[in-house]
Amino acid sequence: MSDWPLTQTFRSTSGDVRWNRLGEPGQAPVVLCHGTPFSSYVWRAVARSLARRYQVFVWDMPGYGTSQMYAGQDVSLAAQGKVFTELLAHWGLAEPLVVAHDFGGAVSLRAHLLHGASYRALALVDPVALAPWGSPFFRLVGEHSDVFGQLPPALHRALVREYVGSASSPGLHPAVLDRLVEPWLGDPGQAAFYRQIAQADQRHTDEVQARYGEIGIPTLVCWGQDDTWIPPAKGHELVARIPGARLEPIAGAGHLVQEDAPAELTAVLIDFLQHAR
């Protein structure tokens, strides 16, 4: 993984977390949170751009990317919210700027509302935040994860490639698709892929959904207008629940906005983060 090295390790309550820091020490800290079934790799272009003026922290959630994967691992949203809180304490970040995508949105919201994690500002990109969520495919796999976990490796690889690729509207470059699929192949990756889907429980967003009105920090919600995983209408619903939140539609982007429109997303984030400092 030399193209996107996560050189540091933090031993969390759900396994070893691989992470890295970009930018100069002393700059305002920005933490980037990825979603499922991705890794911090999707943030590489945005992270490198933000690192020109911020200290940027990136990490792979336990059970994802280059972080530890093992049988019986708790990779639920509940567990990840605790891990994120632990990681912020490990980094010594009292009030970072947080940018979170997909499941990372739910992780950052749980850490803030349930575990007391303080942020200076929060940007949510096509987040998992409001019920109902989960595509028919996602729910099918979750209900039959033991069966899907027994797929021959070639069929599993084809399934994951098709699933990951569908997150992009214009389509992913083959090399990028390979890189996003790679952690889910072989042992223990194949088992980890179905484990994280099996543990995706809507009750973990139900627990915080009614509390979004308590969020008192600057909040931006970005949404790819061609998102087929979570309808853009959810963005309008979410900003209506968070006091003062602003919606920023991203044209031509699907669910994986970082890959589909990195320049547009970076420009929006820089403008928001500058005014939130």
Index terms:
single chain, 277 residues, 12 helices, 42% helix, globular, hydrolase, Alpha/beta hydrolase, AB_hydrolase_fold
Helix-strand topology string: EEEHEHEHEHHHHHHEHEHH
The chain-level structural class is: alpha/beta
Approximate helicity band? 40-55%
Report the count of strand segments: 8
Radius of gyration: 17 Å
Largest sheet: 8 strands, mixed
Low-confidence stretches: none
Strand content: 15-25%
In DSSP terms (H or I, runs of 4 or more residues), the helix count works out at: 12
Shape: globular
Distance between the termini: 33 Å
Biggest sheet: strand arrangement: 1-2-4-3-5-6-7-8
User: What is the averaged pLDDT score?
Assistant: 97
Secondary-structure blueprint of this entry?
Elements lengths: L7 E5 L2 E8 L6 E5 L10 H7 L4 E5 L17 H15 L5 E5 L1 H12 L6 E5 L10 H8 L1 H4 L4 H13 L8 H8 L4 H13 L4 H7 L9 E6 L8 H9 L4 E5 L6 H4 L1 H15 L1
Parallel strand pairs: 3-4, 3-5, 5-6, 6-7, 7-8
Antiparallel strand pairs: 1-2, 2-4
Helix pairs in contact: 1-12, 2-3, 4-8, 6-7
Pfam family, one: Abhydrolase_1
Organism: Streptomyces coacervatus
Protein name: Alpha/beta hydrolase
